[in-house]
Specification:
CATH topology of the largest domain: Rossmann fold
Number of domains: 2
Largest sheet: 9 strands, mixed
CATH superfamily of the largest domain: Glycogen Phosphorylase B
Number of helices: 17
Distance between the termini: 9 Å
Radius of gyration: 23 Å
CATH class of the largest domain: Alpha Beta
Strand content: 15-25%
Bound molecules: adenosine-5'-diphosphate, alpha-D-glucopyranose
Length: about 475
């Protein structure tokens, strides 16, 4: 099986969220079960600088507004998975992140930048490919790659395509005026095409033209077929229900292993949990929390967006502190949420601490040092941190949605609440606080979680089955 995996971010090169984790791990896991899976990624500066050696592979012609581009070839860091890098300096060689400039504004030409990526993917999957290697399946991920199935369609290329939705909240919407820059035919701008409420939606293009659709958990696959989580696309998704599958993400169990985690000063496993308290001590010290081995310590790591429900947590902070608990938060995102988090920390010195920013090492230290982990997301296509938490014996407290509902079992491996409200979160927290006082019961919960297997092996096998069904 040969697969071209097209994505806009990959760990450890460039990451804004879980898509990067998946893109760094799934192709490697597929390689282990015999799939020749190659990754296509834009040549952002972070990619060109940090992927050594990257060699010129071939020229690629036929991209919109960019008659010739260079295709470079290397490997995903730490593996022998083939990585193709689309080198178009006019589109990708600029400061900032993959989608936004250094001020946090979207790059004004994003529609074109990702149309290039999508067209490159379609060309590489077509008989016009200069690679001398033809994928049997083109696997696209999220809106930046959504036009690829549309290009395949209008090029008359029969290579089957899979469109995976990692988050339906990001739909790649642009005014119709950009259409000519993308070299899509005018007739594509229709409800049976790339049009979405008078605009162009790159994600919708993928959902309409791809042969198969998938998302990153079975529950989310059901949720997005109706309002509100279908976010306007529920009609299309429901009409394609028979071609839509939910495959739960895995986690990188080498990167996330409490027994051998280079970001920690301690190591522990389900067999010997005693050293976890050293991680807690180190986290309290690093974050300026009172050194209190018995205080239930809650952790949270998230992009600070409405999706993640931080407002619910801020509503129950006083209760947590009142009950003798501590809270540590890590994340970055909306300015208003960041401000509210900072204010809350200032009100509870020594009990609530935060770091506003991106910090890989601290994210591992929170997973290891906290007793429990909060994920009150309003929706969560899969979610990775609850799985990291389970592996680290850090009991997850989650809203029953998407992948959270599929991975955490109420009262067995964590706490699950039904409504995305501060009240429901608080009731779950009270249960957790009560159980925490019963050391033996809490340990049982920790161990149950640590025994779960969320490695990529199972998910990779499911993708392979899906690919086989497509060819
Ligand atoms: P999403 O993709 O919606 O952001 P996921 O749970 O799938 O949510 O993945 C988020 C990933 O990003 C996790 O690996 C998480 O640890 C990481 N992450 C998010 N914010 C930060 C941060 N501020 N610092 C370090 N890691 C972060
Ligand atoms: C998205 C989702 C998250 C998921 C990740 C990887 O960013 O918000 O729930 O885990 O993609 O699939």
């Amino acid at each position: 099986m040969k697969v071209l995996f097209c994505t806009s971010e990959v760990v450890p090169l460039v990451k804004t969220g879980g898509l990067a984790d998946v893109s760094g791990a799934l192709p490697v896991a597929l390689g282990r079960i015999g799939v020749d899976c190659r990754v296509l990624l834009p040549g952002y500066p972070q990619v060109l600088e940090n992927t050594a050696p990257l060699e010129f592979h071939c020229d690629l012609t036929g991209l919109p507004g960019q008659p010739t581009a260079r295709l470079l070839r290397g490997a995903l860091p730490g593996s022998d998975t083939c990585l193709y890098v689309l080198d178009v300096p006019a589109a990708y060689d600029r400061p900032g992140g993959p989608y936004q400039d250094t001020q946090g504004e979207d790059h004004a030409d994003n529609a074109w930048r990702f149309a290039l990526l999508a067209k490159a993917a379609a060309l590489l999957a077509s008989p016009l490919s200069p690679l001398g290697w033809r994928p049997r399946v083109l696997h696209c991920n999220d809106w930046p790659t959504g036009l690829a199935p549309a290009y395949l369609h209008f090029m008359g290329v029969a290579t089957p395509s899979l469109m995976t939705v990692h988050n339906l909240a990001y739909q790649g919407i642009f005014p119709r005026e950009v259409l000519p820059d993308l070299e899509l035919p005018p007739e594509s701008f229709s409800i049976d095409g790339v049009e979405y409420y008078g605009n162009l939606s790159l994600l919708k293009a993928g959902l309409y033209y791809a042969g198969r659709l998938s998302t990153v958990s079975p529950t989310y696959a059901r949720e997005i077929q109706r309002s509100p989580l279908g976010m306007g696309l529920e009609g299309l998704l429901a009409s394609r229900a028979g071609e839509l599958t939910g495959i739960l993400n895995g986690i990188d169990s080498v990167e996330w292993d409490p027994a051998a985690d280079p970001h920690l000063s301690c190591a522990y496993s389900a067999r010997d949990l005693s050293d976890k308290r050293h991680c807690k001590q180190a986290l309290q010290a690093r974050m300026g929390l009172q050194a209190d081995p018995d205080a239930p310590l809650f952790g949270l790591i998230a992009r600070m967006t409405h999706q993640k429900g931080l407002d619910l947590v801020l509503d129950v902070v006083d209760g947590i502190v009142h009950r003798g608990g501590q809270l540590v938060l890590l994340g970055t995102g909306d300015a208003a949420i960041e401000r509210a988090v900072r204010d809350t920390c200032a009100r509870h010195p020594g009990r609530v601490a935060c770091l506003i920013g991106y910090d890989e090492a601290l994210s591992h230290q929170i997973e290891a040092g906290a007793d429990a982990f909060l994920m009150p997301s309003r929706f969560e296509p899969c979610g990775l941190n609850q799985m990291y938490s389970l592996r680290y014996g850090t009991v997850p407290i989650v809203h029953a949605t998407g992948g959270l509902a599929d991975t955490v079992e109420d009262g067995v491996t964590g706490f699950v609440f039904r409504e995305p409200s501060a009240h429901a979160l608080w009731l779950a927290l009270e249960q957790a606080l009560t159980l925490y006082a019963d050391r033996a019961a809490w340990r049982r919960l920790m161990k149950n979680g640590m025994q779960q297997d969320f490695s990529w092996q199972n998910s990779a096998q499911s993708y392979l089955t899906l690919y086989r069904g497509m060819v």
